[in-house]
Design a protein that fits this description.
The complex is a heterodimer of chains A (about 550) and B (about 325). With about 550 residues, chain A is mainly α. Chain A is about 65% helix and about 0% strand. By secondary structure, chain B is of the alpha+beta class. Chain B folds into three domains: about 80 residues, Helix Hairpins (Orthogonal Bundle), CATH 1.10.287; about 110 residues, Immunoglobulin-like (Sandwich), CATH 2.60.40.420; about 100 residues, Cytochrome c-like domain (Cytochrome Bc1 Complex, Chain D, domain 2, Orthogonal Bundle), CATH 1.10.760.10. Helix content of chain B is about 40%, strand content about 20%. Chain B contains nine helices and twelve strands. In chain B, helix 2 packs antiparallel against helix 3, helix 6 packs across helix 9 and helix 8 packs across helix 9. Classes of the chains: A mainly alpha (about 550), B alpha+beta (about 325).
Chain lengths: ~550, ~325
């Protein structure tokens, strides 16, 4: 079955206890420093909060089925969309791929035993849980109605649990920073012998670029959030004009983190796709260096574009022009990546397994998400579209569609490696189609709602918008059905015997050279890299030897 | 392809529309084109090179510098064009002509108040003359609001402690919808205003005598209109539902207990006082958050409200 016979894993030679079996017991999981176990605990935590945030999303869509009150009042609605946004951003999308899949896969891809700082890794998980508990506890204080963006002076003057929610986001920032520090150190120090920077799988480049942003941008958010707390609790005037502050200053601070954070969400998604497409095309990646440098370019450019969220917020004409100009440069590395992925499929040997179907969904959805960004980067069109459903739809295409579908692609790709079990591949193919259709049904109408003038965060709306809202709500049910189907067959896979081969997809990267699931130490001894990450030639070139140009 | 534009965008009614719609449709077609271009390539690749046997060998193509330059430089040229196009429209929408008429627009939870050059003030209904440049100077009394007129393709935030500007020349008479587009709490989605684009004669009459329609309306109907349009509805329900303020259902001739413990009969004087000096009596259990309507309602509008409340049994 495995096509990677040339490097058949050591796992085939007699079974050792895998990392899931030994040591046993809940306590051993709670005190583990194994990156794979931490990755899985992150993954299930993220999936749990995805369910919670998803239920809030369904409630929002249900409320918007009619122009006036449907199932809740305005104050509840404002709390529900705030929690949906805060949970999905801070507890789901930001940690989804780096902390869950990254923790599981990065050391395996590098041929390492673990991450550089295993205890810091476990700390990061506990910090995440503490932050999550604080975020949920805000419900007991009457909830939060500021929106996940906490814009001042609304956020410094409204009631409820804003202070606790802000502190929760502050704490969660540290979990993100710890993961970033860990990944950078791991990539620098723990690559297998023979693995230079350009022999690393592209997933690692994506994680590296993500980690750079996590480390450089998150502290700014932390400081900003503390300033809000100082204003709310101590009455220090920083943002509230009543106290002599400047509300627009908050937006600069907030987006200085939160725009790079958008790339914390999309770079890991691109990282997963860069693994999935070569494996299922059985062909080397097209333009390795272009993809690797594009990731770093997006990470760095991401720091220079924050004020494109503020074109109508009273920034100067000159600032608007500069930020619009710089924003357009993000489009180039993004376009390069998409074309490189398609070129990788070109003349390949394409197998439409579930991870590949999700990856193709990603390509289509990211194409829409990326191109609709042009409307918002351009100054005159942004003036019309800013803070309407067009923006809501655009960022769901990028953050929810692209990120979560790539997350699903990664889960389906590494599931046999995680658990040694295979899911029902037919159901997986069906659900990938349902999710794709459901997602587009939900969010395509929102582009039109926005361009026709429907503002975001509206509890009541004018009757002329109802048809498109109904279409979107029905789409959300289709999307939910697809996601529940995915959950069902993934959970059902635990009833299958542990029979997944070491290399079910014929991948060429190191994680496929060890057993599924791996032992606690990942590999039997130290693996030595023998060929490049995506070298599918029958006789791959040994690494370290300069290849002739093609 | 005008039908497609009309499907996506509301009708245009200001001098900014042409600039913005042209760029909007250009990017729309670009998006449609690249979606089908990429989708088509993927579909073709999957059909043409679907794996038929596990033994298939694929060519080892690591890169192609010329091809990669092409798909970097063409997008670069396209986005630079979009940047310049967008910048041009933005500059035009930013710099108001010198002869623009200035109106002060103040946002507060959850109404818009307008003050005209001659001192006239209105709530939620903005009257402007057609074909004359108008500059709105925006500010806010509490949190950030945003003034959005889809049919003019314009939007600008109203920020407390600052002044921002927005200008337009309306090109046809009629009523245009205004939305608040910066989230501002419970009444955010009800913070709607209307722009009445008047002919020069209608505008003169408005400044002299107030809105024509309003002048001719029976008092009770006028009261309902005021309730709907001047922000009353945001806090005071008609069906007994508790809002930020007491419901108006059946309160006529009833007794309100004030926060100070005093009892007050709901009659014409009490209603008038509650509108003009709302903090004089705050009904027990409610916050003293209502702003004063002093100078914002005409005498006839207050009478209308009294008649309207009288009838609400």
């Amino acid at each position: 079955m495995s096509e990677g016979v040339l490097y058949a894993g050591a796992g085939h030679a007699g079974r050792h206890a895998d990392y899931l079996e030994e040591p046993k017991g809940l306590w051993s999981w709670l005190t583990t420093v194994d990156h794979k176990r931490i990755g899985l605990m992150y993954m299930w935590s993220v999936l749990f909060f995805f369910l919670v945030g998803g239920i809030f999303a369904l409630l929002i869509r249900l409320e918007l089925l009619t122009p006036k009150q449907t199932i809740m009042d305005a104050e509840t609605y404002n709390r529900v969309f705030t929690l949906h946004g805060a949970i999905m951003t801070f507890l789901v999308i930001i940690p989804a791929i780096p902390a869950a899949l990254g923790n599981f896969a990065l050391p395996l891809l590098l041929g390492a035993k673990d991450v550089a700082f295993p205890r810091l890794n476990l700390t990061s998980l506990y910090v995440y849980w503490i932050g999550a508990a604080m975020a949920v506890a805000t419900l007991a204080l009457g909830g939060v109605d500021t929106g996940w963006t906490f814009y001042t002076p609304y956020s410094t003057t409204t009631g409820g649990g804003v202070t606790l929610m802000v502190l929760a986001a502050f704490v969660l920032g540290f979990s993100s920073i710890f993961t970033g520090v860990n990944f950078i150190a791991t990539i620098h120090k723990l690559r297998a012998p023979g693995m230079g920077w350009f022999e690393m799988p592209l997933f690692c480049w994506g994680m590296y670029a993500t980690a750079l942003i996590q480390i450089l941008a998150t502290p700014v958010l932390g400081i900003t959030l503390l300033l809000i707390v100082m204003e709310r609790v101590l009455g220090v005037g920083i943002f509230d004009p009543q106290l002599g502050g400047d509300p627009v200053l908050f937006q600069h601070f907030f987006w200085f983190y939160s725009h790079p954070a958008v790339y914390i969400m999309i770079l890991p998604a691109m990282a997963v796709i860069s693994e999935v497409i070569p494996t299922f095309s059985k062909k080397t990646i097209f333009g390795y260096k272009a993809i690797a440098f594009s990731s770093v370019a997006i990470a760095l450019l991401g720091f220079l574009v924050w004020a494109h969220h503020m074109f109508v917020a009273g920034i100067s004409l000159f600032a608007g022009a500069i930020f619009s100009f710089l924003t357009f440069f993000i489009a180039i590395p993004s376009a390069i990546k998409v074309f490189n992925w398609i070129a990788t499929m070109w003349r390949g040997s394409i197998s439409l397994e579930a991870p590949m179907l999700f990856a193709i969904s990603f390509l289509l959805i990211f194409t829409i998400g990326g191109l609709t960004g042009l409307f918002l980067a351009a100054l005159s069109t942004d003036v019309h579209l800013h803070d309407t459903y067009f923006v809501v739809s655009h960022f769901h295409y990028v953050m929810a569609g692209s990120n979560l579908i790539a997350f699903l692609a990664g889960i389906h790709y590494w599931w046999p490696k995680m658990y040694g079990r295979m899911y029902n591949t037919k159901l997986a193919a069906i659900s990938s189609a349902i999710i794709f259709i459901g997602f587009n049904m939900t969010f395509l109408p929102q582009f039109v709602l926005g361009s026709r003038g429907m503002p975001r965060r509206y509890f009541n709306y004018l009757p002329q918008f109802q048809d498109l809202h109904v279409a979107s709500t029905v789409g959300s049910w289709v999307l939910a059905a697809g996601l529940f189907l995915t959950a069902a067959y993934l959970l059902a896979s635990f009833r299958q015997p542990k029979g997944a081969p070491a290399n079910p997809w014929g991948g060429r990267t190191l994680e496929w050279e060890t057993a599924s699931p791996p032992t606690a130490h990942n590999f039997e001894g130290q693996p030595v890299l023998q060929h490049g990450p995506y070298d599918y030639r029958p006789e791959p070139a040994p690494v370290g030897v300069k290849e002739l140009a093609h | 392809m005008n039908w497609f534009r009309d499907f996506l965008l509301p009708p245009g009614a200001s001098t900014h529309v042409g600039e913005m719609d042209g760029l909007f449709m250009f990017i729309t077609w670009l998006t449609v084109f690249f979606f089908f271009f990429n989708g088509g390539l993927i579909f073709y690749a999957v059909r043409r090179w679907r794996r038929r046997s596990a033994k298939e060998v694929t060519p080892h193509i690591t890169h192609d510098t010329r091809l990669e330059l092409v798909w970097s430089l063409i997008p670069l040229a396209v986005v630079m064009l979009i940047f310049l196009w967008g910048f041009k429209g933005y500059v035009k929408a930013w710099v108001a002509p010198n002869d623009a008429m200035e109106i002060l627009a103040t946002g507060k939870k959850w109404v818009w108040e307008f003050e005209y050059p001659d001192g006239t003030r209105t709530l939620n209904d903005l009257h402007v003359p057609v074909n004359r440049p108008v500059k709105l100077v925006l500010t806010s009394e509490d949190v950030i609001h945003s003034f959005f007129i889809p049919e003019f393709r314009l939007k600008r935030d109203a920020i407390p402690g600052r002044y921002t500007e927005l200008w337009f020349t309306a090109t046809e008479p009629g009523i245009k919808q205004v939305y608040c587009t910066e989230y501002c709490g419970k009444g955010h989605s009800d913070m709607l205003a209307r722009i009445f684009v008047d002919t020069p004669e209608q505008y003169e009459t408005f400044l002299r005598e107030g809105d024509e329609q309003v002048r001719k309306m029976p008092l009770k109907e006028l009261g309902r209109l005021v309730w709907e349009n001047k922000g009353c509805a945001t806090c005071h329900s008609l069906d007994g539902t508790r809002g930020q303020g007491p419901s108006w259902k059946g309160i006529w001739n009833q007794t309100h207990r004030g926060a100070d413990g005093g009892e007050h009969r709901v009659n014409a004087d009490y209603i008038r006082q509650s509108i003009l000096t709302p903090q004089a009596v705050v009904v027990q259990g409610f916050e003293p958050i209502m702003p004063t309507y002093q100078g914002l309602l005409r005498e006839r509008e207050i009478l209308g409200l009294i008649e309207f409340i009288k009838e609400l049994q």
